[in-house]
Design brief:
alpha+beta; 3 helices; globular
């Protein structure tokens, strides 16, 4: 059975790509998807682009231009050296951040097939809590 899983973070103002990514990186997240930076910037948000890890500043700049022009951009982030992470989508012109935790997903130990959202929240909330966070929603539903 397929599931719709994710966390949606809401902010009281517009958050730029450099601000949100910078805060997450300072908090322990990496722009590292198997040795490359994977990101989305085009308006239909379907074609992932890949760049070398050394292109971090340029990628974040492209992401901010996309957010300003059509309201959304995304990047794969992983936690420290674990390889665990997901796609982080900055949407609604910077008022929402959505996490789809499908990169080496951490599941609960007490029940199979359910994501351990506490694992993700413990690593994201300290990084984004000072950026005007007003709340978050968790989704884990079959479709």
């Amino acid at each position: 059975m397929s599931r719709n899983i994710g966390i949606k973070f809401h902010f009281d103002g517009t958050i730029s790509a450099p601000d949100i990514i910078g805060s997450l990186v300072r908090g322990g997240w990496r722009l590292d998807d198997g040795g490359r930076i994977s990101y989305l910037v085009e308006s239909d948000m379907t074609d992932w682009e890949n760049e070398a890890l050394s292109a971090e500043s340029a990628v974040i700049g492209e992401m901010e231009k996309a957010r300003q022009s059509h309201g959304a951009c995304a990047v794969i982030l992983t936690w420290e050296a674990t390889g665990v992470g997901g796609s982080f989508l900055l949407s609604s012109a910077g008022h929402k951040l959505l996490l789809d935790p499908r990169v080496d997903t951490v599941y609960r130990q007490d029940i199979d097939d359910y994501v351990d959202f506490e694992w993700y929240l413990a690593r994201i909330l300290p990084a984004v809590g000072t950026l005007g966070l007003t709340g978050y929603e968790i989704s884990d539903l079959p479709y």
